[in-house]
From TrEMBL:
Gene3D superfamilies: Periplasmic binding protein-like II (3.40.190.10), Winged helix-like DNA-binding domain superfamily/Winged helix DNA-binding domain (1.10.10.10). Residues 10-65 form the HTH lysR-type domain. InterPro entries: LysR-type_TF_proteobact-type (IPR058163), LysR_HTH_N (IPR000847), LysR_subst-bd (IPR005119), WH-like_DNA-bd_sf (IPR036388), WH_DNA-bd_sf (IPR036390). PROSITE patterns: HTH_LYSR. Coiled coil: none annotated. This is LysR family transcriptional regulator. Belongs to the LysR transcriptional regulatory family. Pfam families: HTH_1, LysR_substrate. Keywords: DNA-binding, Transcription, Transcription regulation.
Amino acid sequence: MTSALNPSLLSWLRCFDAAARARSFTQAAATLCITQGAVSQQVKQLEQWLRRPLFLRSPRALVLTPEGLRLHGVLRESFDALEAALLQLRAPAEGAPLTLSCAPSFAMGWLTPRLGDFFRQHPGLELRVLGEFESLDRARMAQRGLAAAVRYDPGGYADLQDSLFLDEWLLPVASPAWLAAQPQPPQLDTLAPEQLLHDDQAWDGAGPHEEWLQWLQAARPAGLPPALAQGLHLGRHFNLTQLALAAALAGQGVAMGRAALVMDDLAAGRLVAPFRLADGGVALRGRAAYRLVAPADAVPGVEAVRAWLGAQAASFIRQRDAWLARHNTP
């Protein structure tokens, strides 16, 4: 069976895709480094072959017909899939940097202060860290040139391998200055809404107030008092945990802390844990954890990052668990 995708048709489709994205033959020509007349002619040949128009031409812009919209949608999906496959198959250049995508708050609060140790251990490996929290799949990682990623979530990646290297514990935190400024010792049940500091989304796909709600349900298993329930929905909101914690450090209220991000401040006395759970402890194991996410056929260097993260996490866990043993008891 002879394929309809002959070289001429593929060339016409390439010009059509560029024109459809730009809505202009002139801009498409600049993108493809050919003349405007060549783009217009190749699109016209595609329309003649299809026996139907793909654009409505006007002096100001090109407008896709319904058939043009349908064809362009199929082309975009096909080209994106082809690009992802090519990027996945292409071997990295020798000595190319390894790019690690990392949840921003974790990158700032835990990873970056420890990176000096990684570079001392691996002087020949160039590691670049990008702070971002978008959801990932294999195609997106390939398109963005990501060798691996650190994500804070419950896991469950369909086409990537994720290895948990650090679990997380949740506890409300505030500054000593905020506590001292309260006219009476603060009570969890009567906190004003503006005193609760929120990370709007703990991880991609998390529900509203995910971490606050999990901790509060363990603190008040019989149900949340009205003031506290109202505070969950009002409060002060941020799009990064690190911003909510910065507000807590500045004495603006109580933030839900993650042990990995607040342990140094707790140890130094810059933050305190003012409230307790129903069982008398202060911290609760969270649903999410920190995971290294990478394709099964990860590029060289990812295994070194995985081993280093594991060793750093083990050291931190010893410090964290010693603090929990002193404070997380009735």
